Amino acid sequence: MAYQTFRQEYLQVPPVTRAYTTACVLTTAAVQLELITPFQLYFNPELIFKHFQVWRLITNYLFFGPVGFNFLFNMIFLYRYCRMLEEGSFRGRTADFVFMFLFGGLLMTLFGLFVNLVFLGQAFTIMLVYVWSRRNPYVRMNFFGLLIFQAPFLPWVLMGFSLLLGNSIIVDLLGIAVGHIYFFLEDVFPNQPGGGRLLRTPSVLKAIFDTAEDDPNYNPLPEERPGGFAWGEGQRLGG
């Protein structure tokens, strides 16, 4: 019974969120079981381009460190905001969501050539948080019950939290920068005088990922509860 309930809940998670979070959890489990090591996963341009270890272009986005507070914190934020984007502004636009992943990953990898970062998954999570926060500007956030602010400030609050924990803020700045570039090109520039859409999802992605009908049994998460926990709970202003 418990297995059937878990399976039903798991299959209700939208496909891109389900695939990415599952890959992250399985990668971490494989490291914990010593089936692989982080040295086989990290971002290393020399190994990628000179020794053709191209899998590192993907695996460096899948490992968030050993199981612990930092891993759980990142997984919760990744799952929640990735899912809310996919069920919110990307609802029925799976191909566009996949294209955002590819565009953000490519841009982040290019920037990664110039910064000393070996795993980019956390920066990718911040990118997702940034895009969601800019598309939901009127959601009021409650961070650990200590701070109340509107959603667009969330990435900066997370950066301040990282700073308090003694972590490098380069990761957060990279995620914010890539998220802002995507948001500007997709949401801002097309609406400017003389602007236009520079980001267009390839038709091959639409043919693969977009479907004609939505699943009638699909049960999305409400965007009115962006964090789901005390550190990210929110509600819309005036609601």
From TrEMBL:
Keywords per UniProt: Endoplasmic reticulum, Membrane, Transmembrane, Transmembrane helix
Alphabetical GO biological process terms: ERAD pathway
Transmembrane segments: 54-79, 99-132, 139-158, 164-185
Disordered, as annotated region: 215-239
Keyword Heme: no
Membrane topology of this protein: Multi-pass membrane protein
Name of a matching Pfam family: DER1
Compartments, record wording: Endoplasmic reticulum membrane
Gly residues bias: start-end ranges: 229-239
Highest taxon listed in the record's lineage: Eukaryota
GO CC annotations, alphabetized: endoplasmic reticulum membrane
Chief site of localization: endoplasmic reticulum
Family classification: Belongs to the derlin family.
PANTHER family on file: DER1-LIKE PROTEIN, DERLIN (PTHR11009)
The protein's role, per its UniProt record: Functional component of endoplasmic reticulum-associated degradation (ERAD) for misfolded lumenal proteins. May act by forming a channel that allows the retrotranslocation of misfolded proteins into the cytosol where they are ubiquitinated and degraded by the proteasome.
Record's protein name: Derlin
Gene from which the chain derives: Derl2_1
